[in-house]
Design a protein that fits this description.
Elements (H helix, E strand, L loop, with lengths): L5 H17 L4 H11 L4 H22 L1 H9 L10 H4 L7 H6 L1 H4 L9 E4 L9 E4 L1 H17 L8 E5 L8 H13 L2 E5 L8 H11 L3 E5 H14 L8 E5 L5 H11 L3 E7 L3 E6 L6 E3 L4 E6 L11 E7 L10 E10 L11 E8 L4 E2 L5 E2 L3 H6 L5 E10 L2 E8 L6 H15 L4 E6 L14 E3 L5
Parallel strand pairs: 3-4, 3-5, 5-6, 6-7, 16-19, 17-18
Antiparallel strand pairs: 1-2, 7-8, 8-9, 9-13, 10-11, 11-12, 12-13, 14-15, 16-17
């Protein structure tokens, strides 16, 4: 009889004992619920989503002063919401509204029982928000489900190259996090500390720890991958890599798969909701967690849009402490009506095109996705990192970090000509060379940034 390994022991006994018995949490129960849901038909999942939505709307109208007033202004009550088209009549919630109406957005029956979290502030100003215990537990359950599609099961030995807290952590919390990471076999390397001087140590840590899965921000994984490739280093065998926090381009996926010799799975999330969508083994798009969230995309006029880029609108179906209903998170994505060959009934997000502020606009009305620049600049091997910043409608600066040897005059001319052809000759383009491009507070590299509204 085969002896069960630690991962099996963890999933069957240790995690249920820890989460359910010792901590009194329902994470494992929710995980089993979500595992079952994924194999239901699309119509069955839509029904689950609708029932959850109706319940959330009734709760919010009764207990959240902000929504009660907003919906009364348009003559709507939960009883009037009979279809998704009715639901789409409800006003959109944005970050500025949350800041202005913070207390009014907290449910009166959840005051003093919510937790506070902040976003990283990738647009310059962090957002503070509240969430309740059930929402927290369900977010973790959905995360475990999505990571499992990439072969990262509970209790697997995993190494994370992730952002560490910038503020000094409470010693008790630090100790509890260390204990949790130990029993879940999760090792974390601080992506903020990655540099020319430390990169070899990161590779050595991967080789010493020998993880089954590697999880990380895209930019630091690419830096490490290029270093391994350049130095012809050997690296521990991995079953999979999970990327998040930043856009993963196909040429980056190819690099990581070539260097680490394992499949790469992309994920999409934000701090307000955690995991929104993730790839299965088919790698033909990301499954949206529609049994947990309601995700829409809209055009500039607020109309529903599918199969082409739209602004992402999300409703968290389980955060009753501070409900986010039709929240615009600033991202652009494409929702697809295809059904995946894997058999899951969860719908597909075929691509994530970045933040709305990543789009470059021109004086003659052109709209260029930020994705254009990585595909252009990847062809020039002397460029290590870059950032494109639009300061005015007719002014763009490109910050470059170079490999040893510098940028050839012909390469700069090539970039200038290609970008001018795309943006038009009314846009002034300049280059500035840096030793390092600053990251956001959460350690992300924003490769394309528009300052037309604010910067």
């Amino acid at each position: 009889m085969q002896t069960p390994n630690y991962g099996e022991m963890f999933r069957k006994y240790i995690y249920p004992l820890y989460e359910t018995t010792l901590r009194g949490r329902s994470t494992f129960k929710y995980y089993k619920e979500y595992e079952k849901n994924q194999w239901l038909s699309p119509d069955e999942i839509k029904h689950i989503q609708w029932v959850k939505l109706k319940k959330l709307l009734e709760h919010s109208y009764k207990n959240v002063e902000y929504y009660k007033q907003q919906w009364r202004n348009i003559g709507a009550t939960p009883k009037d919401i009979k279809t998704l088209d009715d639901y789409r009549r409800l006003p959109i919630l944005d970050k500025q509204m949350i800041r202005q109406h913070y207390d009014e957005l907290i449910a009166k029956n959840h005051h003093h029982s919510t937790r506070t979290k902040k976003t990283g502030g990738s647009t310059g100003v962090p957002l503070r928000f509240e969430f309740d215990d059930e929402s927290d537990q369900r977010r973790n359950a959905v995360m475990w489900r999505g990571y499992r599609w990439a072969g990262n099961k509970m209790g697997n030995k995993s190494l994370y190259i992730w952002g560490a807290p910038i503020d000094e952590e409470d010693k008790q919390k630090k100790f509890k996090d260390a204990c949790y990471n130990y029993i879940t076999r999760k090792k974390i390397l601080n992506s903020f500390a990655l540099s020319e001087n430390t990169i070899n140590e990161y590779v050595e840590q991967i080789n010493r720890y020998k993880p089954i899965n590697l999880v990380g921000y895209v930019a630091p994984l690419i830096i490490i991958g290029k270093y391994i490739q350049k130095e012809s280093l050997t690296v521990a065998n991995l079953s999979s890599i999970i990327t998040g926090a930043e856009i993963l381009h196909e040429f980056q996926r190819e690099l990581l798969e070539d260097v680490f010799n394992c499949p790469v799975y992309n994920t999409y999330g934000c701090r307000e909701f955690m995991l929104i969508a993730s790839e299965c083994g088919q790698s033909k798009g990301l499954h949206i967690n529609t049994d947990h969230l309601l995700v829409e995309t809209i055009d500039d006029n607020g109309n529903e849009i599918n199969n082409k880029p739209g602004k992402v609108i999300i409703t968290d179906l389980h955060n009753y402490g501070m409900p986010f209903i039709r929240y615009i998170n600033g991202d652009i994505a494409v929702l697809d009506e295809r059904i995946c060959d894997c058999g899951r009934g969860l719908p597909i997000m075929s691509s994530i095109q970045g933040r709305e502020l990543d789009i470059i606009r021109t004086p003659d009305g052109r709209i260029v996705p930020g994705e254009y620049f990585p595909h252009l600049i990847k062809e020039i091997s002397s460029i290590k990192e870059f950032q494109v910043v639009q300061y005015k409608l007719n002014k763009i600066k490109i910050y470059l970090v170079l490999q040893t040897g510098g940028l050839a005059v012909s390469d700069e001319r090539y970039l200038r000509n290609k970008i001018s052809n795309t943006l038009g000759d009314k846009v002034y383009i300049s280059f500035e060379y840096l030793d390092k491009i600053p990251r956001t507070n959460t350690g992300k590299l924003r490769v394309t940034m528009s300052c037309l509204s604010d910067c």
